[in-house]
């Protein structure tokens, strides 16, 4: 595994030793960022990135290599967090990258972490986790108005993250489909009660 473009191009990434983590391949990651750079050329310039189900952190670090200002890596697995931390240190990204131990489907309110301009979600396939995570991110205020959201899933899946996510494009790579959404804050999210957000946060800590 290596970074395929930008400041860190060609540098190797720490990789998983087990099959519990399925990192995006170098080729798929290169295709992903080629699409972004051509269809959304300004999106990486100084942007804040949210990497859900971050795994090894490869996608978020690729974004940092290509001009993103900062990245938050959300990962609940022990092996994944260890790999992400190692990669952050290897690339000297301590000032631009943060590791967040959390179930991506139960994010709770974003609080002081604010909203993000570019969101990646690469969940375990076939379980509906990606759409649940994006719905949770929407409820919690993690996604900025107008943000680009990328959801990776198996070709057989038909994810529906709910209101606010406008499908812009869909690209297939073998057994994988990457869906590109533009996010608009739903009216229901704007008026969501504090008690509902607090309930989600409380459940996350149980």
The major pleated sheet works out as: 7 strands, mixed
Unreliable sequence segments: 190-206
Please bin the fraction of helical residues: 25-40%
Which term fits the overall shape?
A: globular
Topology (elements, then pairings):
Blueprint: H1 26-39, E1 48-52, H2 58-65, E2 70-74, H3 78-90, E3 97-100, E4 116-121, H4 129-139, E5 143-154, E6 165-173, E7 176-183, H5 187-190, H6 194-204
Parallel strand pairs: 1-2, 1-4, 2-3, 4-5
Antiparallel strand pairs: 5-7, 6-7
GO biological process, one term: rRNA methylation
InterPro entries: DNA_methylase_N6_adenine_CS, RNA_MeTrfase_RsmD, SAM-dependent_MTases_sf
Organism: Hoeflea halophila
What are its keywords?
single chain, 206 residues, alpha/beta, Rossmann fold, 7-stranded mixed beta sheet, 6 helices, 30% helix, disordered C terminus
Structure description:
The chain has a single domain, classed as Rossmann fold, CATH 3.40.50.150. 30% of the residues lie in helices and 24% in strands. With 206 residues, it is of the alpha/beta class. The N and C termini lie far apart (36 Å). The protein has helices at 26-39, 58-65, 78-90, 129-139, 187-190, 194-204, and strands spanning 48-52, 70-74, 97-100, 116-121, 143-154, 165-173, 176-183. The protein has a seven-stranded mixed sheet, sandwiched between helices. The longest helix is centred in the first third of the chain and has 14 residues, at 26-39. The protein has six helices and seven strands; from the N terminus they run H-E-H-E-H-E-E-H-E-E-E-H-H. Residues 190-206 have low confidence and may be disordered.
């Amino acid at each position: 595994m290596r970074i395929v473009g930008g400041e860190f191009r060609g540098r190797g990434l720490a990789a998983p030793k087990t099959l519990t983590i399925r990192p995006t391949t170098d080729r798929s990651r290169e295709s992903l960022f080629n699409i972004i750079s051509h269809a959304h050329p300004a999106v990486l310039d100084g942007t804040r990135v949210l990497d859900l189900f971050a795994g090894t952190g490869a996608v978020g670090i690729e974004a940092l290599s290509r001009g993103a200002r900062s990245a938050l890596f959300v990962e609940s697995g022990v092996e994944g967090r260890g790999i992400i931390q190692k990669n952050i240190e290897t690339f000297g990204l301590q000032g631009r990258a943060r590791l967040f131990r959390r179930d991506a489907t139960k994010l709770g309110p974003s609080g002081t972490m604010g909203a993000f301009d570019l969101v990646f979600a690469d969940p375990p396939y076939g379980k509906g986790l990606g759409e649940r995570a994006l719905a949770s991110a929407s409820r919690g205020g993690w996604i900025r108005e107008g943000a680009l959201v990328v959801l990776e899933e198996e070709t057989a899946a038909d994810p529906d993250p709910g209101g606010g996510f406008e499908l812009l494009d869909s690209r297939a790579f073998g057994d994988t489909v990457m869906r590109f959404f533009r996010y608009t804050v739903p009216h229901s999210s704007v008026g969501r009660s504090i008690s509902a957000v607090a309930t989600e946060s409380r459940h996350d800590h149980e």
